[in-house]
Amino acid sequence: MFTGLVEGIGKIKDIRRTQDDMRVTIIPLFEFTDCRVGDSICVDGVCLTVTHIKEGAYTMDVSGESISLSTLGHLRGGDEVNLERALRPTDRLGGHLVSGHLDGTGKILKKDAKRGFWLLRIGLDQELSRYTIEKGSIAVDGISLTINSCEDRFFEVSIIPQTVKDTTLLKKRVGDPVNLETDLIGKYVEKFFLRARPEQQRDTSSGIDLEMLIKQGFGD
User: Fold this and answer.
1) Spatial distance between the Cα atoms of 192 and 213, rounded to a whole number of angstroms
2) Engineered SS bond to 60: which of 31, 48, 148, 161, CB 3.0-4.6 Å?
């Protein structure tokens, strides 16, 4: 589990591809101690397991499933990626709960400077937009961001100077793809309530029903 607060940037040292999978070696460009073989690292929003460490370089395997759902398959040597080590129970949860298990990718539609901040509009499939709500959370390339506004096919987020400094997000151009993980809690709400059997949806004894949840911004 991660927070979506990126610790810093890493550079791709080497990529080895097989028919379906790939192995990537990354050199962190910041102090990256206390990481061992078997630990989880969030790489551009994708949870990967460290399989080998040598001279400050960390090697991780990427499954075909992760490649199909993310932008990792497009990486090349020298590319930069966002890195975050797994959350410890004693850490502050400054972002939101990020699993590193992607829902898919989106595309940068607009990128505007706004008085020291940046406004990004990111397009996504309608199947994913059902989990976006104003002032809700979303992870973009592993970065925990607050949604300013959203429609059926896009959402907008503000990028503060600190995020610009610590991540690769503004190095992306309009038209570039990004990795997306929607809010974990929203998906559980949908599973437990919005997909309940009709007789369960009609049961208002708990004070929670389908109509109330939709009014609060959950669901379509």
Assistant:
1) 11
2) 48
DSSP label of 171: G
pLDDT in tens, 93-137: 788 889 999 999 999 999 999 888 999 999 999 999 999 999 999
Q: What is the three-class DSSP state of 198?
A: helix
CB 89 within 8 A of CB 70: no
Q: Is the dihedral of CA 73, 123, 86, 57 positive or negative?
A: positive
Q: What is the DSSP string of 40-105?
A: EEEETTEEEEEEEEETTEEEEEE-HHHHHHSSGGG--TT-EEEEEEPPPTTS---S--B-S---EE
Structure tokens at 135: 């002032």
Report the C-alpha gap between 41 and 9 in whole angstroms. Answer: 12
Q: Alpha-carbon distance 132 to 162, whole Å? A: 24
Classify residue 29: in a domain, yes or no: yes
pLDDT digits (tens, 9 = 90+) for 3-32: 999 999 999 999 999 888 999 999 999 999
Q: Are 177 and 71 in contact (CB under 8 A)?
A: yes
The DSSP H or E segment spanning 196 is none
Domain that holds residue 166: 104-185
pTM for this predicted structure:
0.85
